[in-house]
Amino acid sequence: MTRIIAGTAGSLRLAVPKSGTRPTSDRVREAIFSSLESWGLVEGARVLDLYAGSGALGLEAASRGAARVVLVEKHPAAAKIVADNARVVLGAFAKQDPESTPEVSAVRQSVQGYLDEAAADPRPEWDVALLDPPYELGNEELTANLTTLLPLLAADAVVLVERSTRSGSPVWPEGYAPIREKRYGETALWWAERADRPE
Q: Where are the alpha helices (DSSP H) in the chain?
């Protein structure tokens, strides 16, 4: 089990798939959201959670005030858990703060498939994109994800890639500017923004 750390759904427990996913630890999730909140990119944000696993990252954003969250997960068992967890978090809003209930969608689809469909009519709509791919995902596929994602990002958006420290730094395609790298034991966080971000 894992839990929502803070916000309207704080302390709610979330189900985690029995296999095939690697939930982000509370410590790392707190570090992620500390960064996002310091940049003003949680309240009212539009958040895309790719390789959602249990949905914990995107649902944490929803609990803390994001306006819209889309959770993309292709594994059937994990996708069901993502949808169930989303209902649990939205239930907390229904009880405590129905006026500020975010829009949360769970999509059962491959990440590249989802991005390819969105790229057919690219609109720069995402403020935050979170990618926590399986450790075995190769750099080529991750780079393809990031390339297709770029035109879907708002001008001041940030992108997070969470990987094993042994996987090495992501290969950021042209159009991205890396801004931060942090390591927490075996987990590494790499952040980037659009290279054409306005000053």
A: 26-38, 56-63, 76-96, 111-119, 139-149
Helix (H, G, I), strand (E, B) or coil at 158: strand
pLDDT in tens, 21-33: 667 889 999 999 9
Label residues 40-67 b or e (16+ Cβ within 10 Å = b).
Answer: ebbeebbbbbbbbbbbbbbbbbbbbbbb
Q: What is the pairing mode between strands 2-3 and 68-72?
A: unpaired
Average pLDDT, the chain: 94
Backbone angles phi, psi at 120, to 5 degrees: -65, -25
Q: Do residues 172 and 152 lie in contact, with contact meaning Cβ atoms separated by under 8 Å? A: no
- Across-strand partners of 189? 162, 182
In this prediction, residue 122 carries a pLDDT of: 81
Residues whose CB falls within 8 Å of the CB of residue 167, separated by 6 or more in sequence, listed in order: 135, 188
CA 116 to chain centre: 18
Q: Tell me the whole-structure pTM to 2 decimals.
A: 0.95
Tokens 């730094």 sit on residue? 169
Q: What is the predicted pLDDT for the residue at 23?
A: 74
Cα separations (Å) of 167 from 3, 5, 17, 88, 136?
Answer: 27, 27, 23, 33, 9
DSSP secondary structure letter of residue 126: E
Contact yes or no for 13/65 (Cβ under 8 A): no
pLDDT at 184 exceeding the cut of 70: yes
pLDDT recorded at residue 21? 62
